[in-house]
Design brief:
single chain; about 210 residues; alpha+beta; NADH Oxidase; about 45% helix; oxidoreductase activity; Nitroreductase; Nitroreductase-like
């Protein structure tokens, strides 16, 4: 599959794999990066709160800072960019913005606005575990969409959970509002993803109940 090929969603999903070796020195055009992130941000989210934020690490200097934080996984240096996907622990604040704008533009009534804001604030008030669960779950939806969008644009990716989250927060000045969910390297493959065995559906699917 080439970048010029109009790939179907199924083709992209089948072609995607976790690539760990990238062509060093390849620069990603800003337009490609913005399109990938725009598509990633189209992911669904609870109450449309869009819990994800993307910390894009692309300069050689910042990549070197990231390297020990990522336990010296060389892909964060060789890939075009590494995106730290962050989850928003205070996504209810975004709800006020989103539903306020929808009300102003006449897309919803005052009653719908008030009902939605009441639901959101009620769920988030004094419930840090709910906020964390929602941040990680919804940011993960966007992370998967990011990887598929990148593959459709001719780039390969690898999601990484193996990194020092506290060190990432401190080195890159991440505010307390956001929780690091995963790192995703994005670049041009130097070597293909390793083949992986997949469990058969009869081990994965439970029909109706256990």
């Amino acid at each position: 599959m080439t970048q010029s090929t109009a790939a179907s969603a199924i083709e992209v999903m089948l072609a995607r794999g976790s690539v760990r070796k990238y062509q060093a020195g390849v620069e990603m055009p800003q337009a490609d990066l913005e399109e990938i992130l725009t598509l990633a941000a189209k992911a669904p989210s609870s109450w449309n709160l869009q819990h994800w934020r993307y910390l894009v690490i692309s300069s050689p200097e910042q990549k070197q800072k990231l390297l020990p934080i990522a336990y010296n996984q060389e892909q964060v240096v060789d890939a075009c960019v590494t995106v730290a996907v962050l989850g928003d622990l205070e996504a209810n604040k975004t709800g006020h913005q989103i539903y306020g704008e929808a009300l102003k533009e006449g897309h919803i009534t005052q009653q719908i606005h008030d009902t939605m804001i009441s639901q959101i604030d009620g769920a988030y008030t004094n419930n840090p575990q709910f906020a964390r669960d929602e941040a990680i779950m919804n940011a993960s939806l966007s992370a998967m969409q990011l990887m598929l969008a990148a593959k459709a644009k001719g780039y390969d990716t690898c999601p990484m959970g193996g990194f020092n989250r506290q060190a990432l927060i401190e080195e890159f000045n991440i505010p307390a509002r956001y929780v690091p969910v995963m790192l995703i390297s994005v670049g041009k493959a130097e070597a293909p993803a390793r083949p992986t065995n997949r469990l058969p559906l009869d081990q994965l699917v439970i029909q109706d109940c256990f």
